[in-house]
Amino acid sequence: MNETLATRVRRISRAMYVAIAVIVFVGDQATKTMVERSIPLHAVVPVLPRFFNLTHTENSGAAFGLFSESPSPWKTALLVAVSAALLVAVASIVWRSRRIQWETGVGLSLILGGAFSNLIDRVREGRVVDFIDLYFKSYHWFTFNLADSAIVVGAGFLILQVLLAREGQPHSEPGSLDP
After folding, report:
1. What is the DSSP code string of 35-94?
2. Looking at residue 172, what is its pLDDT?
3. Per-residue model confidence (pLDDT) at position 79
4. C-alpha torsion angle, residues 44, 45, 48, 52 (rounded to 10)
5. Are 85 and 115 in contact (CB under 8 A)?
6. Contact (CB, 8 A) for 76 and 60
7. Contact 115/62 with Cβ under 8 angstroms?
8. Cys-Cys link to 110, which of 86, 119, 125, 150 (CB 3.0-4.6 A)?
9. Cβ distance 79 to 122 under 8 Å?
10. pTM
11. Residues 28, 113 contacting (CB under 8 angstroms)
12. Which residues are identified as catalytic?
């Protein structure tokens, strides 16, 4: 592939990855706003009985409610600082990479969009809105949001890319990024 074509392909790929992250961010912010406006705090709206509810909850902690009960005044600042540092690191890796497998690019884009949306909520409000309640009988998963889903699916793309790496790939290691 000649240099100008390679540069053009790289730009299109980066634009696609940015678009994925933006779609996740906008979708997450929109769904959280809809939930805040239409479902009272702690109210439950059954969608699929014995499996799926919409419920308006607020999480001031980390993923899965970790540290949500902590009274520490530094909790939010620490969560914001760590999230921001990780976002900068991931964005830097994606941007500097000359070659990136599509699974890696899509996975990192999903993670960036979701993490950035939750970060903005923590900076603005000190918490995130969660509303997806999946359960079976009396076993409930932690309530989560669209951003959390994107982060998990993005991580799944990265894991699958590593697990399903084929022999003879241009990368030296499965999932490696070419700086």
Report:
1. HHHHS-BT-EEEEETTTEEEEEEEE-SSGGGTTTT---TTHHHHHHHHHHHHHHHHHHHH
2. 44
3. 79
4. -40
5. no
6. yes
7. no
8. 150
9. yes
10. 0.80
11. yes
12. 130, 148
Domain boundaries, the chain: 3-163
144 is written with which tokens? 């989560």
Pair 79, 119: CB distance under 8 Å: no
By the 10 Å C-beta count (0-12 exposed, 13-18 middle, 19+ buried), 24 is classed as: buried
Residue 104 CB partners (closer than 8 Å, separation 6+): 157, 158, 161, 175, 177
CB 133 within 8 A of CB 55: yes
pLDDT of 57-107, one tens digit each?
998 876 656 566 666 666 677 778 888 888 888 788 777 776 778 888 899
Residue type, 7: T
Torsions phi, psi of 131, nearest 5?
-150, -10
